[in-house]
Amino acid sequence: MPKRSSETDMSPEAAAEEHARLAQEIAEHDVRYHQQDAPTISDADYDALRRRLDHLESLFPTLKSTSSPSAKVGAAPSEKFAKVRHVVPMLSLGNVFADEEVEDFVGRIRRFLGLGADASVSLTAEPKIDGLSCSLRYEKGVLVTAATRGDGFEGEDVTANVRTIGSIPNVLKGDVPEICEVRGEVYMSHTDFAALNVNQEATGGKLFANPRNAAAGSLRQLDPTITAARPLQFFAYAWGEMSAVPAKTQSGVVAAFAAMGLPTNPLMRLCYSVKDMLDVYRAIEARRATLGYDIDGVVYKVDDLALQARLGFVSRSPRWAVAHKFPAEKATTILEGIEIQVGRTGALTPVARLKPVTVGGVVVSNATLHNEDEIARKDVRIGDTVIVQRAGDVIPQILGAVLEKRPADTKPYVFPDVCPVCGSAALREIDAKGETDAVRRCTGGLICAAQAVERLKHFASRNAFDIEGLGDKQIEFFHEKGLIRAPADIFTLARRDAESLTKIRNFEGFGETSVRNLFAAIEARRHIAINRFIYALGIRHVGETNAKRLARHFGNFAALREVGIKAADPESEARAELTGIEGIGAVVAEALADFFAEAHNEEALNALLAEVTTEPMEEVAASSPVAGKTVVFTGALERMTRDEAKAMAERLGAKVSGSVSKKTDLLVAGADAGSKLAKARELGVEVISEDEWLARVNG
Fold first, then answer.
1. Is position 281 within any domain?
2. Which domain holds residue 93?
3. Which residues of 138-152 are buried (b: 16+ CB within 10 A; e: fewer)?
4. Predicted TM-score of the model (pTM)
5. How far apart are the first and last CA of the chain?
6. DSSP alpha helices (H): ranges in 425-556?
7. Which of 64, 128, 301, 646 is catalytic?
8. Would you call 173 a catalytic residue per the annotation?
C-alpha cells in the first residue's frame, strides 16, 4: 500500500493522489483474480486496501461522494456455455472483519440517509454460504432460465443442470409475480462432498479441494446427467428482475420465497442494533462446525426495501449490504522460492513458491508477498519456515517467518532493480509530495514483452473489447509468433492470414472452424462503446469506473483525445476540465495527459482507430430528462444527502461535476449556496432548487 501522510495534516491533493493509487492497485488485483485466475493478494490484504480507501473517503467527503473503484464481479463466463444477460446485474458484497467495522457500516448508512441517532434501522443477518451464485428466472411460476453470475452482467446458461437439483422447484407455488428472478447459492454439504471425493478416487476422477469447488464444477458440466448424479442444494436469499416485489422488506421477500416452495436459510434473523448484529454473528460462528455446509461469514442487509433503493449501489457492491467475514485460517510451511511477476502496468509483484500445505481444507503452493517493503518488514527468506494465512478462496498471504526454525545459511532477499523479463531498469516512482510508491515498475514500456502481452490480454478481456476466442493463451501464442504485437494487429489478423503462405489454421490447436469463429468474433468488435474503448487502452489509473466517467462527460473519443492532448499543460483549461469531472482528480488527469503526450501511443491509437469505430456509451437511463447533462450540486440539501443526490443523478445518466464551468448545464442549489451559485449565474447556467430537481427527475 502506498506510503501515507499524517492523518492530521494530509492535504486534499495528497488524499486524492493516494485515493487514485489505491484505486489503481485494487483494479490490478481485480484483473489478476477475475480474469487471469492468478491472484497475488489475499482476501484480507485486498480488503485492507478497500478499507484504507474508505477511510480516505471518510476523511475527505469529496472523495467519498464518488463511486468506489470499479471491480468486475466474479469471472468471465465460459465459452462452453450459452450466455445469459442479467437484466439486473449480479454484484458482489463488500467485506468487513472487525466489530468496529460493523459499527462503521451502520454509521455510514445513517450518514448517507441523513438519519438522526434516534431513527431506527433494522437489518437482516444470515449465513454467507460458500458456494456458487445462481439466478433462477421464473415466468408465470415456471422455471425458464438458470444462469451463473459470470462477470456480474453476463453469466452461463446452466438451465438444464439446475433442473436436476431436487431442492429447486420447476414450478413455484401460490401467489407468484409474473416475472420472478430468484437469486441464491448452489452448494454441497460436507457429507455429500466427502462421498463424492471417495467416488472420484475410486473411479480415477479428479478430487475436489473443497465443497465450493465441487459445487461449481458439478453445476458447470456440459452433460446434465453428471450434474444430476451430484448432490447439489440451494438457498434463495435475493432477487433480480421482478414484475412485482412480494413484500416491502428483505425479510418479507425471503419469507415469500419460502411460501413459493424455494429453500431459504432458517438462520436468518432480524436485527435492530449493532449489538443484535454481532450477537447473531457470534451465534452463527459458534454453530459453523455443526451446520453441515460451508459458510465464511454473515451477511447484513438493510431490511427496508425503500431504504435500500435510496442507498443504491457503488460500482461493485450495494451500499445497503456487507459481508462480515470469519477470521482467516493459518498453517506453516517452507518458503522454497520467490518469483517476480511483471504485470500490465510494469508492476513487479513478488509471489512466494511454497512447499504445498493444507490451509482451511485447501492445498496451497503460492502466497502473496505483496511488495518489496513487505518482504523487508517481515524479513522472510528463501528456506524459512513461514506462517501462511488464508482468508477466502484467493491466494494466501505470508504473515512472517518462524525465526527459531530459520536455517543458518539463509540471506535477506534482495529485490531486483531490473525487470526479469526485458532487463530494463525497475524503479519506484516519487510523487509530487516526495513520497515513494510501494510498487517497483519496469521502465521498458512497449519493449517489455511481459507488459505487451498483459496489455493485449487486458485489451481483449471481458470488460474491454470482449473478443470471444481470444483469451490469454491465444494472446500469448499470437504474440510469440509475432502475429499480434499491438491492438490494431488484432483487426488486421484475418487480412494478413489471407495473404500469408503460413495459415493460422495449420498451427497446432487451431482448425478451420476455430479460426473462422475467431475472425468473426474480431469482426463483431469493430464497433465498440466508448467507455469499453477507453478502458481497453490500459491508461494508468483509468479503470472501468473512470472510463465511464470520461465517456459520459465527453460523449465521443475525439473530444477526449483533444482535451487529453491539450492537458499536457498543467495550467491549461483542458487540465482544469479533466480535474473538474466528478471523480477525476489530479492524478488521473496527469495520467491521461501523459498517455496522449506519448508519440508511440498516438501511433498505436491512429492505427487502431483506422480499424474500429467507437459508439456512444449505453446509458441505463438514456430517456431521463437529465441524461447526458452536466449537473453540479451546491449548498445544503434538505430532502436528501449530497451523496444521494449525486448517486441519483449518475443513475439517471447525468454527468456530475464538482465545479461550475461554461459546460455546466444545470446547478441544483440548496440552502446557503455560495460561490458556485454566483458563478453559475455569471455564466448563465440554469439554476434550480432541490424541489425543482426532484420534480424534474420524477416527472
1. yes
2. 83-322
3. beebebebbbbbbbb
4. 0.54
5. 46
6. 449-460, 472-480, 487-491, 493-499, 512-523, 530-536, 544-554
7. 128
8. no
